[in-house]
Design a protein that fits this description.
Layout lengths: L20 E5 L3 E2 L10 E5 L2 E5 L11 E5 L4 E3 L4 E2 L9 E10 L2 E9 L11 E5 L4 E3 L15 E5 L2 E8 L4 E9 L7 E5 L13 E5 L2 E5 L11 E5 L4 E5 L11 E5 L2 E8 L4 E9 L4 E3 L3 E3 L9 E5 L2 E8 L4 E9 L18
Parallel strand pairs: 1-24, 2-6, 7-11
Antiparallel strand pairs: 1-27, 3-4, 4-5, 5-6, 8-9, 9-10, 10-11, 12-13, 13-14, 14-15, 16-17, 17-18, 18-19, 20-21, 21-22, 22-23, 25-26, 26-27
């Protein structure tokens, strides 16, 4: 991480106590994205961060960039095969497979998204070890075209929740069975219980068998609710929270027994707040954070790496950003090690 942080001595940035979480803007090197990005996806494989798609103010891209998290150096690798069309607000799900002889293969499953007027429901797969794209033929009935949905990997299945198709928000849930990579199969599931209102630009975090869906919008209202889809029992549960915190186009990153919510839009304005959802008590917490925070934004992407949260790009209604920020967890760096906890649905 040498020379990766801008440790400014500016009098506008007061010094942080050693234990305090703090923001800094990263210095990156190499050939990064040629345009600022919003509604892109990021996936961390080892020390390599794969950044795909997204758009600036008006143009969508299908470019792939890789950020080496050790040296903070960008590259734009050449890919083979049939790449997805330029898109934004798609999903990218990382799948790891045992290839035998101690080898592991890593694949990014890109689904949906749109380029403005057009919405997609195609599936593309990037084999990241060979940088080769493919477009597998799927069995079953695929989800309708959409963007701003969420995905997670549960066992050998990719779970898709909600999104929007340009005319309306969606609330359906689909699974893509990828146990046989050569024959992926779509099925729609109809969970029991009360489903969340149709929405897009929400977030989903999978904790064991429970998918935690937060926020989003149906184009009219910005939501503050949390719903949990128990995939093992196929049932929705709504969680009562202690505060009303509406958000859409935020990021949600699991850090141990917390989900860190960064930025997004609250229905009135863009935010740069960092909120912690305690998964044990199902309550909101806020910590004092020092340093130079990123400007208010949504449609960014965030990832946890080496006890730091990295935030890339985003949009504030006027400007699309090309920056990278780092949130040092500092004394909270132990949080990712907390894995032995249960989510109470009662």
């Amino acid at each position: 991480m040498a020379a990766a942080l801008e440790l400014s001595a500016s009098p506008n940035v007061p010094p942080a106590p050693a234990a305090g979480m703090y923001w800094s803007r990263a210095v990156t090197y190499g050939r990064g994205p040629s345009r600022p990005l919003r509604a892109h996806t990021i996936n961390l494989i080892g020390e390599q961060l794969f950044v795909f798609g997204g758009c600036d103010i008006k143009t969508c891209f299908n470019s792939l960039y890789v950020l080496d998290m050790d040296t903070m150096t960008w590259s734009k690798p050449k890919t083979l095969g049939q790449a997805p069309p330029p898109c934004r607000a798609h999903s990218s799900t990382l799948v790891e497979r045992d290839l035998g002889s101690g080898k592991r293969g890593h694949y990014l499953y890109i689904f949906g998204g749109g380029d403005g007027p057009n919405y997609f429901n195609d599936l593309y797969v990037l084999h990241t070890d060979t940088l080769t794209w493919s477009k597998p033929k799927c069995e079953g009935t695929p989800p309708s075209p959409r963007r701003a949905h969420t995905t997670c990997l549960w066992g050998d299945r990719i779970v898709i929740v909600g999104g929007g198709d340009g005319a309306r928000a969606l609330s359906d849930v689909h699974m893509l069975d990828i146990a046989d990579p050569g024959r992926p199969r779509w099925t729609q599931i109809k969970p029991l219980g009360s489903p969340p209102i149709a929405r897009g630009y929400h977030t989903s975090n999978l904790v064991k068998d429970k998918l935690i869906v937060y926020g989003g919008s149906d184009g009219h209202e910005c939501f503050s609710d949390v719903h949990i889809l128990d995939l093992a029992t196929n049932r929705w549960n709504q969680i009562e929270l202690d505060r009303i915190v509406p958000r859409l186009a935020h990021s949600a990153t699991q850090v141990g027994s917390y989900i860190f919510i960064i930025g997004g839009h609250d229905g009135s304005r863009y935010s740069n707040d960092v909120l912690l959802l305690n998964l044990v008590t199902m309550s909101w917490e806020q910590r004092k954070i020092y340093g130079g925070a990123p400007s208010a934004r949504g449609y960014h992407a965030a990832v946890l790496h080496d006890s730091r949260l990295y935030l890339l790009g985003g949009y504030d209604g006027k400007t699309v950003f090309d920056d990278v920020y780092i949130l040092e967890l500092s004394a909270s760096s132990y949080l990712p090690q907390i894995t032995n906890f249960e989510i109470d649905l009662m």
